[in-house]
Amino acid sequence: VIELSDLKLVYSSDLADNVIKAGNFDLTNNFMLIGGPCAVETEKQILDIAKQVKKSGANILRGGAYKPRTSPYSFAGLGLEGLKYLQEAGEAVTLPTVTEVMDTRDIETVCQYCDIMQIGTRNAHNYSLLREAGRQDKPVILKRGMNSTIEEWLCSVEYLLKEGKKNVILCERGIRTTETYTRNTLDLSAVCVVKKMTKIPVIVDISHATGRKDIMEDLCLASVMAGCDGLMLEVHTNPNKALCDGKQSLRPNEYSNIVFKVKETRKFYCVLHKSAV
Length: 277
Ligand code: PEP
Ligand code: MN
Known about the structure:
This protein is α/β, with parallel strands linked by helices and 277 residues long. It is 37% helix and 16% strand. It is built from 9 helices and 12 strands. The longest helix is centred in the last third of the chain and has 21 residues.
C-alpha cells in the first residue's frame, strides 16, 4: 500500500508481472510506439497514415473519432464512422488501435471497434467515466489531467484499478504552467516519480506536451532516458490540410527518423539499466 498524504493507493502497488495485451500484442514487454493522426478524417486518410506509421516501426495505431475540442465549432470527429475506418486501417496493417472515449454512453461501441481506450486530459477526473471504463476488458490509456498533480493522477488511475482493472497505462501529456512557448509543459519528473511508485507502464505523448515539431525529437529521446515505456506521436500525410492539430503533426518521414533514434536510445537505456529492450 502506497501512502500518499491522507490518500491510500491500494492497487497501484499490486501490479508486478502484470502483462497488458491489446489483441495478441503484448504492450508490457514491448516499447510502445503509438503513431497516427489526431483525428480520423476519411477512410483513405487513416489507411494511408496507418501504412506509413507501420512502415516506420509503430506498433499501435492512434486516431480520434470522438474529439474533445476547445471550440464547439471545431471538427469533433466522425464518431462511429471514424471507429469503423480506424478498425479497418488497423486490420489492414495488423496494428492494434487506440482511440479516445469521452462519454460513458460510447464505451461499449468504442470497445467493440477498438483495441485500447484512451481517457483524455479533459476527462482525467470524470469519475463516472473512469468507473465505467474500469469495468471493461479492453486496456485503458489514462492521460494526466492538464492541471493534475501526480497524486491526483494516481488517484484517477486508482478509480480504474478499484473496479478490478489491471490493464492500465498512464500517459504524461504535459501540464498547464505559466509557460507559453510550448503548448504544455512536459513533466518528465512525473514519469520518473510514477515509475518509482507503481508498476504501471508510463508513456509520454510528445505531440500534445510540446505542440512544436522542432523540439519533439529531443524530448522523445529525453523521455526514453527518463524511463518511459512508450511514446505517442501525431502523424499526418498532409499536416497543412489536417482537420485537427496539423501544426504539431509529423510527416511520415519525420516520424520514421524519430522512431529510428528512439529505438537506438532505448537500446542504450536498456544496456545502461541492464534490462530487456
Ligand atoms: C489526443 O490524444 O487526441 C488528445 C486530445 O490528447 P489530450 O487529451 O492529452 O489533450
Ligand atoms: Mn491532437
